[in-house]
Write a structure and sequence with these properties.
By secondary structure, this protein is α/β, with parallel strands linked by helices. It contains 11 helices and 11 strands. Helix 10 crosses helix 11. Bound molecules: adenosine-5'-diphosphate (ADP) and 6-O-phosphono-beta-D-fructofuranose.
Length: 354
Amino acid sequence: MKNFKRIGILTSGGDAPGMNAAVRAAVRVALTRGVDVVAIYRGYSGLISGDIKPLSMRDVSNIINRGGTILYSDRCPEFKTKEGMQRAIDTCKKFGIDGIITLGGDGTFRGATDLTAHGIPCVGIPCTIDNDITSTEATIGFDTAMNTVIELIDKLRDTCESHARCNVVEVMGRGAGDIALNTAIASGASSVVVPEFPYDDESICKKIISAKSLGKRNFIVIVSEGVGSDYAPALTKKIQDATGVETKFARLAHIVRGGNPTLRDRVLASKMGTFAAEELLRGNSNVVVCEKRGKIVSKDINYALILDRMYKCTLKEGDLDSFSEEDIAKMKREIDRKRAHLLELFTVENKINL
Ligand code: ADP
Ligand code: F6P
């Protein structure tokens, strides 16, 4: 087993509330085990340029409650190149970095798997508000983002009720309707539009007309950004034209990516950060930390990445070649469970938000 003397930690891709809590946990576990920890700033950019500083126990004090990431984040196209990878490896040698804990989404994990293949073992922690990493039931940041969304929609509802208006609200979720579906239930939205299920503007308008005839004054329609950025503004106009209800549009965008993490995200991040450091130090790398039925487990990064492709129907030729039939059957079961979960949310929303 590798004898770790110094490990690095970085946050990469889109930030997510709870990243700091995970960093705090991982750093403290490693330091307690007598392993040095260095902060790699700005994700893979900092690994390439050597933007690196040692971290002490106290450097991660008072951050469990803070949104964003104290390590900063970046998108680093150079890291995907041969030269970029070589510079990253050189930095690891220069700073004596034996392994890295990487926090981010699937792009970050692709980078982590490349690094592992080049001799720098990595463990990934899933951080994204979108909850679009199929191998885990929850990602760090998802709960906070949803809570921010419902807080904002509650405010919009007040003014819609006063003025008898409708508000179309676009929420984040690159290709995933998880935020939209959950918040639609929790905020009593009239309709929800997500890429996973069919939708049609006419039914949305009919529902509003029918509810209006029964005395309803406020209407919220939630649209996931995954259906395309032009859709929600166009729907806003359509609703106003077809229903006669004055309709406004709000794109919540990055406002729901910031802010203090919720209790759920702080606890999840603390558990995942602890597990990630322990996993790396026990010599288990190229894995992503996942939550499965409330338990923290690790999954092979390649398995997680291919599972995502299978879920998103973006598998490429040969992607499944290295997996056993048993693995493939397991992937299909995981996907069925995720789809069933989203369908349940969609069905409940349609049944009760009239
Ligand atoms: P996220 O991790 O949130 O999915 P990105 O997709 O932007 O965010 O990925 C974060 C970073 O991970 C990228 O800027 C890049 O440095 C690295 N990365 C992304 N895709 C790959 C890849 N295919 N190979 C190696 N590194 C990658
Ligand atoms: O993946 C998280 C996310 O916030 C998506 O919902 C959104 O599409 C994307 O990141 C926006 O990324 P950027 O930070 O590049 O604007």
